[in-house]
Amino acid sequence: MFKEIRILLTKDILSEVKQKNNISIILLYSLTTIFLIYMLFISAIDTATWNALFWIVSLFAATTAISKSFAFDSGSRQLYMYSLASPQAIIIAKIIFNCLFMVLLSALNLIVFIIIFNKAPGNIIGYSLVSLLGIIGISIVMTMVSAIANRTNNNFLLMSVLGFPIIIPLLLSVTKACNALLNLSTEISLAFNIFIILFLIIASALLSFILFPYIWRE
Asked: What are the b/e assignments for 190-211, b being 16+ CB within 10 Å?
């Protein structure tokens, strides 16, 4: 399975590099959104608002980027891949690829947020680690939802309907953990929220691994 995952991951990376338009569109979307936020909040914003806006941008960027994860694996190509690799290898490769892509994109967004608003978390290492967990969790959930939505014609619409109710508990825990690191509230338990984040990541990954073979065979 590891060989299959490596080959599929390499295929996804090469396909994304060749289709530079997708990367350009997502980068333009993120940077434009951040610029519009800056124009709306051109005066100084508080740290809580800064944190909330960062995660709103990250969430919608993930939805836009991951919604097309399976768009090119349909029809005869899907049948061909089904004959070459196991569904477990396919979903793991997709999750790894989407996690890597979103981590890089979110890191860029965070750097731009820090520069453009001239505001950086005091505990940048802790904030980055919690953000990393949050982005991984969002990527896993959205990848599975994208696989389900790919079976319908309303791909993006169904992703929104299915994805956001699942994402909300994860996003709430991530923002609360980030707020605790930013010293915005002494009543928030950092350890408890990190536990919730890890639990949701593991649960989402296991469900994806178990359920995707049934979706793939339909």
From this structure: eeebbebbeebbeebbeebeee
**Exposure string (b/e) for 27-63, b if CB count within 10 Å is 16 or more?**
eebbeebbeebeeeeeeebebeebbebbbebbbebbb
Inter-residue long-range contacts of 53-58, CB under 8 Å, 24+ positions, other chains counted: 53/113, 54/109, 54/110, 54/113, 55/134, 55/171, 55/174, 55/175, 55/178, 57/30, 57/33, 57/109, 57/113, 58/102, 58/106, 58/109, 58/134, 58/135, 58/138
Question: Residue 80 sits in which domain range?
Answer: 2-217
Domain count within the chain: 1
What are residue 120's phi and psi, to 5 degrees?
-125, 145
Query: What is the pLDDT tens value at each position of the chain, 218 positions in all?
Result: 777 888 878 887 887 777 766 777 788 888 888 888 888 876 667 778 888 888 888 888 888 888 777 766 655 666 666 667 787 888 888 899 999 999 998 999 889 888 888 877 777 888 889 999 999 999 998 888 887 777 666 566 666 677 777 788 888 889 888 888 877 666 667 888 889 999 989 998 898 888 887 776 65
User: In which residue are the tokens 């339909």 written?
Assistant: 218
